[in-house]
Design a protein that fits this description.
It is a single chain. This protein has eleven helices and 15 strands. The strands form four sheets. Strands 3-2-1-6-7-14-15 form a seven-stranded mixed β-sheet, sandwiched between helices. A four-stranded parallel β-sheet has the order 9-10-8-13, with helices on both faces. The two termini are 42 Å apart.
Length: 370
């Protein structure tokens, strides 16, 4: 595992990139308070890297003192702000003619780190943000990553912070929909986030007694889903709940529904409505769809997410103190360990179709449409 040259650390930066997630502020607090024990100064970069690349727009750097991070552990969101459109290797720049083009500003960013006297970076983010961190590490930046995503799809860590909160809230929402679906004898399709991994849909669906769960890892046949719901009806169960991951796709090789964005990013969504429209004529039942969307990102983190976030923040600073660089902190119960960013960048951890949770769901009679 790579270690940095023996040089003293005096000032570290912390940033949050990609989508927000419950627990971000707890990571920041864990890192800041631990860094102060080493006598290091901490600054936060506003809006991922925009605080250095576009300080007038991004807000520049924020001093992170123990007083500044007091009482933020239970706050949702991030006090530093974030963006999913600030990749320094593919940074959107508007030309004089009004056209937006992508430009590599990574060298400019490296100079900004040097100009601001920043010795190391704690980069908090998901697969995209950690891939950027890996690219900067290869350019010589001393960086340690912290795995953040409600989707729980990062490789080499048992869990990411934010996931437990998202699943807990999704479970509560699905539970509430049981009563209204039963009252109106309806089928209700609930679409949840997760991108190309079905962790949220699977765990929330099983915990909330869903009757069908559709995830990206198990392509579904809509006719088999409808048949399962009709069988429930024949058995005297007059309603059904179907949980759909936003990246779910039908059999036959069709891709998930995506919207291309500047910089190559993708926005998923729409599969819940499509499934609901397909089930209505096949079941003969009134069908509704609900998209939980960004509701899963907000709110106060659960106790588990607070604890793991504080542990991750503290572990990231300990990694710097040990001279480690180009690594991500990862949960390997009961400990936190360090994994090279090269093993994490652009790698997605998906639900194993034969995992125990999937097998449990099948044993409970939950349909996957396969």
């Amino acid at each position: 595992m790579a270690k940095a040259n023996a040089r003293p650390i005096r000032r570290i930066a912390i940033n949050t990139g990609g989508g927000d997630a419950p627990g971000l502020n707890a990571v920041i607090r864990g890192a800041v308070l631990t860094a102060r024990r080493y006598g290091w100064e901490c600054v936060g970069i506003r809006d991922s890297y925009d605080g250095l690349l576009a300080p007038m727009r991004g807000g520049g750097l924020v001093p992170l003192t123990p007083e500044r991070v007091e009482g933020i552990t239970w706050l949702g969101g991030t006090i530093l702000g974030t963006t999913n459109a600030g990749d320094p290797f593919r940074y959107p720049v508007r030309r004089a003619d009004g056209k937006v083009v992508l430009r590599d500003r990574s060298d400019e960013l490296m100079r900004a780190f040097q100009r601001e006297g920043i010795d190391a970076l704690v980069a908090i983010g998901g697969d995209g943000s950690l891939s950027i961190a890996h690219g900067l590490a290869k350019k010589g930046l001393w960086v340690v990553g912290v795995p953040k995503t409600i989707d729980n799809d990062l490789a080499h860590t048992v869990i990411t912070f934010g996931f437990d909160t998202a699943v807990s809230f999704a479970t509560e929402c699905i539970e509430r929909l049981h009563s209204t679906a039963a009252s109106h004898r309806r089928v209700i399709v609930v679409e949840v986030m997760g991108r190309y991994a079905g962790w949220i849909a699977l765990n929330a669906g099983v915990a909330a007694d869903a009757h069908a769960i559709l995830i990206p890892e198990i392509p579904f046949d809509i006719d088999k889903v409808a048949a399962a719901l009709r069988a429930r009806e024949a058995a005297g169960q007059n309603y059904s709940i179907v949980v759909v991951a936003e990246g779910a796709r039908p059999k036959g090789g069709a891709r998930a529904i995506v919207e291309q964005r500047l910089g190559g990013g993708e926005r998923l969504g729409g599969i819940g409505e499509r499934v609901a429209k397909a089930l209505a004529p096949r079941t003969g039942k009134e069908t509704r769809h609900v998209v939980l969307g960004h509701l899963l990102r907000g709110g106060s983190p659960t106790t588990f997410d607070r604890l793991i976030s504080l542990r991750f923040g503290a572990a990231a600073v300990r990694a710097l103190a040990e001279g480690r660089r180009g690594v991500m902190v990862a949960l390997d119960p009961p400990s936190v360990r360090y994994v090279p960013l090269s093993r994490v960048a652009r790698r997605i951890r998906r639900v194993p179709p034969n995992s125990d949770t999937v097998r449990t769901a099948r044993g409970l009679g939950i349909c996957f449409g396969d």
